[in-house]
Design brief:
This protein is an alpha/beta fold. 34% of the residues lie in helices and 15% in strands. The strands form two sheets. It has a seven-stranded parallel beta sheet with strand order 8-7-6-9-10-11-12, with helices on both faces. A five-stranded parallel beta sheet has the order 2-1-3-4-5. The longest helix is centred in the last third of the chain and has 19 residues. The mean pLDDT is 97.
Length: 320
Amino acid sequence: MDIVILDGHTENPGDLSWSGFEELGQVTVYERTPKGDTREIIRRIGSAQAVITNKTPVTAEILDACPGIRYIGLLSTGADVCDCAAAASRGIPVTNIPAYSTQAVAQHAIALLLEICSCVGLHSTAVHAGAWENCQDFTFWESPVIELAGRTMGIIGFGKIGRATGRIARALGMRVLATGSRETPEGLEIGEYTDLDTLLRESDVVSLHCPLKEETRKIINQDTIAKMRAGAILINTGRGGLVDEEALAAALRCGKLYAAGVDVVSQEPITPDNPLLGLKNAFITPHIAWTPVTCRRRIMDIALGNLKNFLEGHVTNRVN
């Protein structure tokens, strides 16, 4: 079969191989495809039977223009990049990559929190600049260092990643509150389930791990921030759309929130007018929590397995 990979670079910038797909058919790999150029997307898909995509959209219009498509494989967990209903109505399965980066995303959420609380980067830079050798004392600090033991982390979305984050928080001596997911025995071993208002009121740290849906869009906004503790910390490794960035920026500027650590923003790549840019208490990483080579290799293996299973007549990880 003809297989087209619309945006392969982020998954494989050169440290992995598409050879497994090449064993299944004729493969064309595009490093990047313009997301807003429907005509170009249609041209690149052409008569291909299998389309592999990460962030390049596959709309109903594209499906109509490319009747040869028999299969769509996503290189991500989220499926909003594809019109799954339109694909289903045409008998086209859409598959995704579930649970490939649970530990890595939890690790990154805690890394953001530790950077805020321990200021490792700030003090390392100061030492290399000569501040320690010129210090009259054996120590100095340029920003407060915060102990996490005894504090409370509230986790909104207590699925696999939320629970993994909660386990690390517990290991650091934190109390864990959770909301946004149904209670499970595993979750009850890690934290206490509660309602959103209680979580916001009692948490020193709020970490977002819920999916982006209409009911969670801008779940962190002016009203919910007002319910948070003064001096609380917000962590977001979920989706940028979970946060009203204007409201967050205002809370960071006035000191209502002590700091925020985010790996995702509302528009990616980040735009120059994003209100979080330039704020010293906004710690921003460029959507890298999922990127360890072990995670991307896992994506490759699962995506290849999904396509193989489709060709063998049984679809796995179908989302439509």
